[in-house]
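Job type: complex structure
Entries:
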Amino acid sequence: MQLRFSAEDEAFRAEVRAWLERQLDGEFRDLRGRGGPGREHEAVDERRAWERALGAAGWIGLGWPAAAGGRGAPLLRQVIFHEEYARARAPGRQGHIGEYLLAPTIAALGTPAQQQRFLPPIARGEQLWCQGYSEPGAGSDLAGVATRAELVGHTWRVTGQKIWTSHAHLADWCFVLCRTSAGARRHEGLSYLLVPMRQDGITVRPIRQLTGTSEFCEVFFDGARTPADHVVGAVGDGWKVAMATLSFERGASTLGQQISFAAELDAIIHAARHNGADRDPQIRQRIADAWIGLRVMRWNALRVLGHGERGELPREALGGKLYWSTWHRRLGELAMEVLGGEAEIIAAAPYALTPLQETFLFSRADTIYAGSSEIQKNIIAARALGLPRGPT
Amino acid sequence: MRFGFTEEQDELRRSVRRILDGAGGVAAARRTMAAGDGHDTVLWRQLARELGLAGLVIPERHGGAGLGWVELVGVMEELGRTLACVPFLSTVGLATATILAAGTEEQQQAILPALARGEVTAALAWLEIGGDPDPAAVTTTARPAPGGHVLLAGKKRFVVDGHSADLLLVVARAPGTSGADGLAVYEVPAGADGVRRHRLPTMDATRALAEVVLADVRVPAASRLGDGGWPAIARALARGRVALAAEQVGGAQRCLDLGVDYAKVRHQFGRPIGSFQAIQHTLAELFVQVESARSAAYYAGWAAAHATADEADEAAAVAAAYCGDAYFHCAAETIQVHGGIGFTWEHDAHLYFKRARASRTLLGTPAFHREDVARRLGLGVADDGADDGAPSTGLGTGPATAPGVA
Ligand SMILES: Cc1cc2nc3c(=O)[nH]c(=O)nc-3n(C[C@H](O)[C@H](O)[C@H](O)COP(=O)(O)OP(=O)(O)OC[C@H]3O[C@@H](n4cnc5c(N)ncnc54)[C@H](O)[C@@H]3O)c2cc1C
């Protein structure tokens, strides 16, 4: 058992830290702490420039193979990058869906031509992507997607509706799971298309979230076009590709996010000491419990990292999403308890929230997106525990 | 970065498991329960002498194996899995830890070799009436007596294996002191004049707790282990909590396994109960808790062996709080998953449930450990208003790297 980072890893950490400090004290000094969950509307253009700066410095695609324009960095290094990113309070990413979801999918299952066409602009921070999975009738039960695509000559024509599509209003491209043939069973006949967002056949309507801001949108496809070869994997094999993407969703970034959770907990501890809430033994217990939960989250992450670079994540990693999302949601509730009556007062009318209010409100989404808590438990029951399938 | 065990460590664990399973697993614990003496002496001889577990964490220069808390965590996990009735936690996890933390080199040289050989067992006599783990609750006194002696007087309770240990390590305070001041630990042969002890009847019959009455027991002043005071004892307790946490992981895993296995074979409404989502979700939550408890215990074991004293103590508190809650929850839910059969004496679920309950109060409750953590975070102490940016998660925005990351 060896739970220290190596000198080489520490040197890498120092390099990341120095770069972030230089940028965030210099050209991008107004971006610290901007654009995180619940504040995606902030500094949109400046953050787009930030994406390009990240790309130019080679920080995007750290973990991709060199052939795909990355640095082939092991998981540990990727986590170090995320930790330092959070520690520096660097701005909320706009490019994460392309970098962490689409790119690994293309690297694994795309054609060489697709890899050459799509990976470099993502690595340069120039192209933003959104994920077109969920529909009004297909959420947890993703195989129920009804959006259709039809090949007309050399062009796909896409018709249907997606919903809850994060960053659709900013994105240049969307990866769309849609039905391309009837298929005997629901998981068959689906395809994974890459569709440019800025075209006549697409209408994007931002949806106001309970935070008052709009991070996700409705996306209407009305004969939207994309070339015939913009399909990842075989036509009709989209389910497999879509699942591959989901498996990337719990990668390095979630392992590194305890650092930003820690900053939130620090703020709560600070508030409790100042307003005297910590004199209440119940509050003390709950704060300590949150802190214990965060430490254990870190050790869970170290355990996954310390598993080595043997491809598949270990079995215990299956519990990661359920653990952190539940913890974070409880943290938001604790923040409100600590603040007492003042918890109610927002930063400014009409609806500007304080950071802890954002934690409280936005964390309600954590247990819904990327596989709800109930779905996580279904997955654990089936894959980690081998329990028999339920009635369907 | 490597979180796993080495091949030698795995082999040690496998050897422990082989011996425990060879003895019949939980059936061995049931035999000991029925016999009523609280010890499986045959099993202990195998583990302590043949496998050398008695000297596991004792340095080689004192006749031990010279291994550490990483190995001990693996052993405790196995002992917890079968509820083995052996004085390992008492002799190794608590008493040896105390001698190592508090004793001088000469004292260690004098005491440890016999412990390492498994010839002598030892128990830490620390808690008193009510079992309050706060050092202020120690009322047993150590009065100076003529001829370079001290007289120990008081009543100890909840002494793990205290009814049978050959050697008692008694925590006592100098007359007129209070709080954590004036505390020390004394080495007392169990047969000394004035020592009266008996096993307490307990709900969890798999772990023996004793009451030890000290009626002016006369021991040489030199039997006081070192002069480290309460901090040395606290350090030893932190080690003991890591050991207990690992035992809790082993028990919790067994509860989950029992639940999962049963859910696959028990049919109701024409299908296995493990296909019902309510059961699946219960077990999925246990899975997350068991794995997280394991991360905590392993990390705390690593920290005990390799990190700074503060990191190690803090990790012990975290593991103690988390594993104490997790084990109880797993044991309780496994009864629920089993239905009526889980409520019987015959089924093992209640043995784990009771062990889990007892373990929650053995070395401080989870609430006590949370309060300890809160204190480390600077909570509940008067805020002087100065924004010192003081104790925080250490993971946050400050320049310091996180523990384990340094
Ligand atoms: C902030 C946010 C951002 C998002 N971004 C995107 C995005 O970029 N792209 C995208 O495609 N989607 C996105 N989503 C959508 C998200 O993936 C879905 O909300 C999620 O899959 C749940 O689907 P649903 O909303 O239809 O809820 P439903 O599936 O209808 O679920 C409703 C409730 O039923 C429960 N439930 C459903 N099925 C089961 C079952 N089998 N067993 C037990 N309980 C069940 C759920 O857990 C939930 O509690 C986002 C969602 C949020 C909140």
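Summary: Chain B touches chain A through 60 residues (CB under 8 Å). The longest helix of chain B spans residues 229-265.
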